Amino acid sequence: MKAWMQPVLDWATAYYGNKWYLLFALIAYVYLFFATKESRRKFGYPCLLIAFLVLNPILYKYVYSKIIYWRLMWLLPNSMAIAYATVLFVKKRKYGWVKIAFFTIAIFVIIFKGTNVYKLSGMIEAANEQKVAAAVQQVCDEMLAVDKTPRCIVPVDMSCEIRQYSGNIEQMYGRNADGYINTLDDLSQRIANEVSKETPDYNYVFAQAMAKNYNFIVLEDWKEVPDDILNSYGYILYSNKAGYNLYYCADVERRNLGGYIVTQYGSIGRNTCYTIEDKDNNLIIIDGGYSWYEDKLRALIRAHNNHVIAWIVTSPIDNCAHAFCEIIKDKQGIQIDSIYTVYISDARHEAAIKNNTYTTDLWKTMTELLKEEKNVTYVKENDTFEVLGLNFKALHAWDEETDEIGSFEYSNGSLCFTIQGSEEQLLYLSKLTANMESSLIERHGDELKSDYVQINDNGMWTMSMEFYDRVSPRYVFMDCGSDYLKPGIYGSGAWDLYNYMPQRFNAQVDIYDTSPNWIVLK
Q: Using alpha carbons only, what angle is made at residue 236 by residues 234 and 239, rounded to the nearest 5 degrees?
């Protein structure tokens, strides 16, 4: 029990910062419990219940350790107990000099044994009636003078006080950028991280700000944004206040990047998740990743008004569909207009198990969940569909040839397709392995040429360089991190392709190490 109680004591000491204060409070609680019937009834019993719930080591181990525990310390009325006990004790003394002496001692103990919050907690005295830093007030007033409801990207250390100063200012992120309150989507987290750097990726920050209709970007004035970036995205240096530059775009809602933002998300292992967004913030999701990515995915969807126009799931395997299944089980207000995926019969699933290849129990879960959905389209080869003005064409889905190959069916049977914009094309190869190369060339060789490509099978059992010569992309999404980029790892071609693409096509290759990575599909 001592080992269980120690974290609770450590948190209490860290929160209150002073053991003398805790001792004084404990003496006050004991006194109030025995002083009078009224103090015991009105204060003693309620406080005993609160202390039992807040300082309970069993509850800490199984419940509180999973939340921000120190917030519960607010529930303990220690200061009130000390004040009440002191006044009640003094009041009950018979002689005036005893009252004065004890009250003086109590005041001295509080002053000299207490902790000055302005010295040890990082707090500072308020500079104005709004109790925020003067710099924050000036920046906020400048934005509010231009727009009654400005949308802004700001340094993380300003975000809390901006929210405190005015609820009319909408920020891309707040305390959740530091892990508080709720999960922040990866894109917003990267913007927060970029803004915090000494030299941010200004192109990334300003492009995303324009795409998401944030009309103000606030940066420290020693960070110099190149004029060509400001001109590209329509922002101007509007003002300088209290050491901060305010960049402003008056017509940000009427601007767009000239196409659709395609974003690759990924961080650990071979998690596969892509999104497509148009200028009106409508959202298409491709795959979604492992179950551990569910919270991040919900945060991303929340940033799009909890509305997914279309969700494309290329295969019912963990690193594609597990987070999707968790969300389908419990949508929590999320609206999904259309679901596109590949159909896998019971017989094919059983055959894949007999072949002792890579299979997944997630197939059964996903199959049962989709039976309850009314908006599911099972896509076959050569099927086409249109979403948000983009044209999708399936180049492959699980078929007889997948059965004949008889290995890695859940990879080789995954949905492969092209996405055609008005000017450019993206080829999404999903989990297909090198075994499907000849079939794709034979059936769709003249459709492979694309401006952008997602490398097949997370860069593991990749297709040949000759295959990618047919694609000849200028940009490459590779769904793996640098840990996979080693010669011969798992027999993959990731390392070779990572080096070949820039040399052969002068193509940019992005991997998980720099995600979220994005392009504009025109």
A: 155
